[in-house]
Design a protein that fits this description.
two-stranded antiparallel sheet; 4-stranded mixed beta sheet; elongated; mainly alpha; Rossmann fold
């Protein structure tokens, strides 16, 4: 027992930080693996075929498409991926302009290059070791890029802090970085943006100042050896820590000015108290004294770092007055602020404010440097600080989640989210305030508390106002927790009682346990995987929409307008250009997008769309609310009524569509809770006539199953133009779908008379016309139309076909023998919009070839089908049967047939006796008669149970052959 006590008291506390570090790295690694499995599974869950790779493309895919699906909270990650790929493809180190936004002009980019460099470095490693093409490597590494940062922080910073603060405070730092959810949230797998880096730099800015003694240094004449004097830095050591803090803060300004400025402001307030107020009455004989010049050094170091990163980012050709990001004005303000802290702290602690004439000038210039920032913000918001722009400000506070207040946010969250978000770390401020005014505690210890207190309190006010500040706020409280732990260590005899130990234990349990407990319980509950939520299902559907729209367009560039979120998705997954993604650099694009949506005159909207080369309007109701743009464009707030004459809102709610829009049908997959929603996709067709517009809308309603609406529109179109061929063709199919065979036949006869006119028709309409002639057995007109179809079909028109039309084209031309006359049509088999349609065509075509006796062609088509879908039971079964029982020696392959038949039977689970029979035939063909007899007996029993007497008789005939040690062979033929 004595040995255990010795180990506990002497060894374990010294290694507490290492134990905490290992535990948190293990937790982060496990959590990342759990989330990463889900990310890759979702990404691989293509509703259709994934985009085709093309390593010469900046994205690694044809037409600059992408495939990765990140969690919704990682929305910014898509832009980081695209910008990093652009940087790599251009061979530069910075990205200052992108053309995928605000088409056709594009927009400026002011995001820090640091995160792009980090992604590029990880991609280079992936490319070097795994051989992944560099563009695709960016998508591979981006989900865990931020998570790796927190691991590197823990591994790199914790040992340093253990040496400076001790094992306990360092252990709290390592544990808290993961256990405090609002801090760790920035680094969760899939959360790919710069917010985590910004939070880290805020934490380090404060933590390094605390490590520098909070502005207090050891007296030169000190000769006592107390824990406080042992810990207090000498002036040279304190300078190094303050310079390091300035570097961290300057880097923070570079990464996110909006996150770092409140940190610096809070530190400034804390500095005045820590070295100014507490410095009053110090004597030469004191063990410690405030060194006010440290704040001057800190300001200069921060200003120099900020200026260095500004030049690194913009020199020599992109200088500009953009105050939303790091700028020399902030460097100047920081240098001035450091000078003011030095002089005011010295004055407040009892020194003289002015000793020579030049001091007044220095103070005045420093003050001007500090106040110039808010003054310029206010006076030149529209020119240099768009954060204060009215349009963006209203958009922020009314419609963006991260800008709502904490109370509203928590009301909308689950119980567990509320528990882990309302971390009681803010309660740390209570003892910090009390101890700061408590007698008997050394002033340097109080300085630790006050300097750690003010940044946390200031950013807490900000986070209560808007939740986007929660990450940086809790990161600062974590730094403060380290400072408090050290203060307790230094003031042990004064502060630590048995009550304190109990309260501290309960407090730390409430701070540090909820998130780890929640993580571990969720891993176990969900089987070590992350469940797919509804938003991720929405992303899957949107990716499919974008990729199918891209298939319709081909590789040609196209501009798509949509809502702020869905525009990003369409750009990323479809390779389109957009107009209104929600970023402050894209204010012109956002305003134009809103202006189009809210237009009261469709002609004005058309003019704007043509000016910006818009090809498609896509309205996704689950993420795209046209009411937002309708209000914003009219300077209205979220609770104001929606202007009912706003074009897109009016289209969505009343179905009144301007004549220049052509609806494009998309069959929404039946997955998730959104399966019954409808989406709106419109192609800009400014030259189409009124009857044509009615017909195209009617075709959309027919595909959507709304036959009455389609019929009504067609009647109106035929009133205006009785011989309108597309209207008559569509009316025929509406009648067929309605069961009105007589009317269908009547329209078919009428079309037979009109068809010789050979009026210009879109390929889709002509295919439907040919299908009508096929259904009415009008062979002459069918042949005439097919000849025209084969002549008319080209890459552009084939891509425009609906999937049923493309299938009809291939089926009809194959049926009439014209497919082989036009080999150029074969590539468009791959244009069928779903794998199932493509395989279905090849199976149908192979059946026609087999019926015609062309077995080599049949085998080739079945192999092609298996190349598309290796698990197609029908293709496996048909090919296995043909190879096993054929009398054609050039095709016969017993061993391959057996492998294919086993695979088909395994997938089928023995449900269909014909597939069982194929395997039995293949086994007999390989002289495995015992297993063949057993399987065939099972097949006969299944057929008899289903009353399939004819099939059972065929299987009995095969069984008789097997019992006689003879395989089944098809009769010989001449093919």
């Amino acid at each position: 027992m004595a040995v255990f006590s010795l180990v506990w008291r002497k060894i374990y506390p010294q290694q507490a930080w290492a134990a905490a570090l290992l535990a948190m790295v293990a937790m982060v690694t496990t959590d990342t693996v759990v989330h990463l499995r889900t990310t890759w599974n979702i990404t691989a869950r293509n509703l259709d075929q994934p985009p085709i790779t093309d390593v010469s493309s900046p994205s690694g895919y044809v037409a600059n498409q992408h495939n990765l699906v990140l969690p919704y909270i990682g929305m910014d990650g898509y832009h980081w991926v695209m910008q990093t790929q652009q940087m790599l493809s251009e061979g530069g180190l910075r990205v200052r302009h992108v053309d995928y936004d605000n088409a056709p002009d594009g927009r400026e980019v002011h995001w820090s290059s640091l995160f792009r460099w980090w992604l590029a470095a990880l991609a280079e490693v992936d490319h070097f070791y795994l051989g992944t093409p560099l563009p695709l490597a960016v998508e591979e590494v981006v989900p865990f890029a931020n998570t790796l940062l927190i691991v590197l922080l823990l591994v790199g910073v914790t040992p340093v802090m253990a040496r400076r603060f001790g094992a306990g405070p360092a252990a709290l730092l390592a544990f808290g970085a993961v256990a405090i959810y609002p801090v760790y949230e920035s680094f969760i797998e899939g959360r790919t943006d710069h917010h985590g880096l910004a939070a880290l730099n805020g934490l380090l800015t404060l933590l390094l100042l605390l490590g520098g003694g909070a502005g207090w240094v050891k007296s030169e004449k000190v000769d006592s050896h107390t824990p406080l004097t042992a810990w207090l830095p000498e002036r040279a050591q304190a300078r190094r820590w303050f310079i390091a803090s300035g570097i961290a803060g300057g880097c923070g300004l570079w990464i996110s000015m909006i996150s770092e400025v409140p940190v610096l402001a809070g530190i400034g307030l804390g500095a005045l108290l820590a070295t100014g107020l507490l410095g009053r009455g110090t004597r030469e004989s004191d063990l410690a004294k405030p060194d006010h010049t440290l704040w001057r050094i800190w300001g200069l170091a921060g200003a120099a770092t900020s200026l260095f990163f500004y030049l690194l980012e913009y020199f020599p050709s992109h200088f500009g007055m953009r105050l939303e990001v790091n700028h020399p004005l902030y460097a100047l303000a920081w240098a001035g602020g450091g000078e003011l802290l030095c002089r005011l702290g010295h004055w407040w602690s009892g020194g003289r404010l002015v000793t020579k004439a030049g001091d007044w000038l220095a103070i005045a210039l420093s003050g001007v440097a500090v106040v110039s920032v808010p003054i310029v913000w206010w006076l030149f918001a529209d020119q240099y600080f768009w954060v204060f722009n009215h349009f963006l400000w209203v958009f922020h506070v009314d419609y963006i989640m991260e800008f709502i207040n904490m109370g509203t946010f928590l009301k909308s969250q689950s119980f567990w989210t509320q528990v882990i978000m309302i971390n009681p770390l803010i309660l740390l401020s209570i003892p910090m305030v009390i101890w700061s005014w408590r007698g008997g505690l050394p002033r340097p210890v109080k300085a630790l508390l006050l300097l750690g207190l003010l940044p946390g309190l200031l950013t807490f006010i900000f986070s209560a106002w808007q939740i986007r500040w929660a990450e940086i706020n809790y990161a600062l409280w974590l730094a403060a927790l380290v400072g408090v732990a050290k203060a307790v260590n230094l003031g042990w005899e004064t502060l630590v009682t048995w009550r304190f130990k109990i309260i501290a234990a309960v407090f730390l349990a409430c701070v540090l346990l909820p998130n780890p407990v929640h993580l571990v319980s969720s891993w176990i509950q969900n089987g070590w995987s992350e469940p797919v939520d509804e938003v991720e299902v929405i992303e899957l559907v949107t990716r499919d929409i974008a990729q199918q729209l891209r298939a319709r367009i081909g590789n040609e560039p196209a501009v798509v307008i949509s809502g702020p979120t869905s525009t990003t998705w369409m750009i990323y997954w479809g390779g389109f250009k957009g107009l209104g993604t929600f970023y402050w650099e894209n204010l012109p694009g956002l305003k134009t997008n809103a202006e189009i949506y809210a237009a009261t005159d469709p002609k004005n909207a058309l003019a704007l769309m043509q000016q910006h080369h818009v090809k498609y309007l896509v309205v996704l109701p689950w993420v795209d609310n046209p009411a937002e743009y309708a209000r914003l464009s009219n300077n209205l707030r979220i609770n104001d009524p929606v202007p009912t004459n706003a074009m897109v809102w009016h289209m969505q709610n009343f179905g009144v569509i301007p004549q220049y829009f052509r609806p494009v049908y998309y069959a929404l997959p039946q997955i998730g809770q959104k399966k019954n929603h409808s989406i709106l996709i419109y192609e800009l067709a400014p030259d189409q006539s009124a009857p044509t517009a009615l017909v195209r809308l009617a075709q959309w309603h027919r595909e959507d199953g709304n036959l009455p609406a389609a019929a009504s529109l067609l009647n109106e179109a035929l009133k205006r133009d009785p011989n309108n061929l597309p209207a008559l063709i569509t009316a025929a199919w509406v009648n067929m779908a309605s069961g009105a065979q007589t009317q269908f036949d009547a329209i078919g006869r009428r079309l037979s008379l009109l068809a010789p006119l050979e009026d210009p028709l879109e390929l889709d309409d002509r295919l439907h016309l040919a299908a009508i002639f096929n259904a009415t057995n009008d062979k002459a007109n069918l042949q005439r139309q097919l000849t025209m179809i084969v002549r008319q079909a080209d890459a552009v028109s084939l891509r425009q076909l609906r999937q049923e039309s493309l299938y009809a084209l291939l089926s009809l031309t194959a049926q009439t023998g014209q497919l082989e006359q036009r080999p150029g049509l074969w590539p468009f088999i791959n244009s069928l919009q779903t794998l199932n349609w493509r395989v279905k065509f090849l199976l149908d075509y192979s059946a026609m070839e087999k019926e015609a006796g062309r077995l080599p062609q049949t085998v080739a088509l079945l192999r092609r089908a298996l190349g598309i879908d290796p698990h197609s039971v029908i293709a496996l079964d048909r090919l296995a049967r043909l190879l096993a029982i054929t009398s054609n020696p050039s095709l016969y392959d017993a061993r391959e047939a057996l492998g294919l038949a086993r695979q088909a039977h395994e997938i089928d689970h023995g449900q269909h006796w014909n597939i069982t029979d194929t395997l039995a035939c293949a086994l007999a063909d390989n002289s495995e008669y015992s297993e063949a007899i057993a399987l065939e007996t099972e097949g006969i029993q299944a057929a008899e149970a289903a009353n399939a007497t004819a099939d059972a008789d065929i299987l009995r005939a095969h069984l008789a052959l097997f019992r006689n040690k003879s395989p089944f062979r098809e009769p010989k033929n001449n093919h």
